[in-house]
Design a protein that fits this description.
Helix content is about 65%, strand content about 10%. It is α+β, with helices and mostly antiparallel strands and about 300 residues long.
């Protein structure tokens, strides 16, 4: 935004004092909330995609050994049979330590070494054309292996629906925060113009036309909005860095898998707030001039 020529001399726009500072604080807080909501939406968008892809590209086979063979042997035969099914990229029989690691979050500190654990085969499916549970179970039956394949289809729909629900909630939060920020900018700009009625009248008497008054209001209101937007986005950037640098294997990294390039979405925010404030300032000056012409 170009600084109007009228401001080359003494500043003719009253500072506003405590009211202006309070408005800046409010806009900064709203900008921070909007920026955080934006990062949350970007993170949940990636998480939803990752979860959905992982759910559709993984399956587990529960193997029941025959009386004349050991568990590892049965699991190895099952993995060999399942690896040959179209749509399966990899079939791996899990060692006991791996099975214990899968059960540990559910059983806590129980002594898993004393528990009879099932033989599991982990399947990695082709995301483009995953093998169905029917074809996988048929392959086990043809190989003479007693087992059942779980392709997560029973609860995949509910899980994906819940993930999409979280994604939609973050979108609603983002739109709500952005709307509140825009409303605060418009109302704050309107109040700022009205509170400077005396100064604007004096400028009119000194020969300032509509373009000069508009440029004056746009410069000051846009500058304040850009400052508040920059501070809010900067604080959100620091929070985003913490999340982006967190290990992806941790709880925070799995729920909100932000990456450093996602933080670029925050860059335009100060400009957006400045443009909204400038447009609001232009409209406010026109309304004020309209009342002056009408003798208000």
């Amino acid at each position: 935004m170009r600084r109007p020529a009228l401001l080359a001399g003494p500043d003719l726009w009253p500072d506003g004092g405590a009211t202006r500072r309070l408005g800046l604080v409010m806009l900064t807080v709203l900008s921070l909330l909007t920026a955080l909501a934006l990062l949350a939406h970007v993170g949940t968008s990636r998480a939803t995609g990752d979860w959905t892809s992982r759910m559709s590209s993984e399956a587990t086979a529960l193997i029941r050994p025959r009386a004349d063979e050991s568990g590892p042997t049965a699991a190895a035969r099952a993995a060999e049979a399942l690896a040959g099914v179209r749509g399966v990229r990899e079939a791996v029989a899990l060692e006991r330590a791996e099975a214990e690691a899968l059960l540990r979050p559910w059983l806590g500190e129980a002594d898993l070494a004393t528990l009879p654990l099932p033989q599991l085969v982990r399947l990695r499916l082709d995301p483009a054309e995953p093998a169905s549970a029917v074809s996988l179970n048929r392959a086990l039956a043809e190989a003479g292996v007693d087992g059942t394949v779980d392709d997560h289809s029973l609860w995949r729909t509910d899980f994906v629906g819940a993930a999409r629900g979280v994604h939609q909630v973050t979108l609603i939060a983002l739109l709500g925060a952005a709307l509140l920020t825009a409303t605060a900018l418009v109302l704050g700009t309107r109040q700022a113009v009205e509170s400077r009625d005396g100064a604007l009248r004096a400028l009119q008497l000194a020969g300032a036309d509509e373009g000069t008054l508009t440029a004056l209001a746009q410069w000051h209101m846009g500058r304040d909005a850009a400052l508040a937007g920059a501070i809010g986005a900067g604080l959100a950037l620091l929070a985003g860095l913490v999340v982006a640098l967190a290990p992806l294997t941790g709880t925070l990294g799995r729920i909100l898998p932000l990456i450093l390039t996602d933080l670029v979405w925050l860059a335009p925010w100060p400009l957006v707030t400045a443009v909204v404030a400038a447009v609001a300032a232009r409209l406010s000056i026109r309304l004020w001039l309209g009342r002056q012409r009408a003798g208000g």
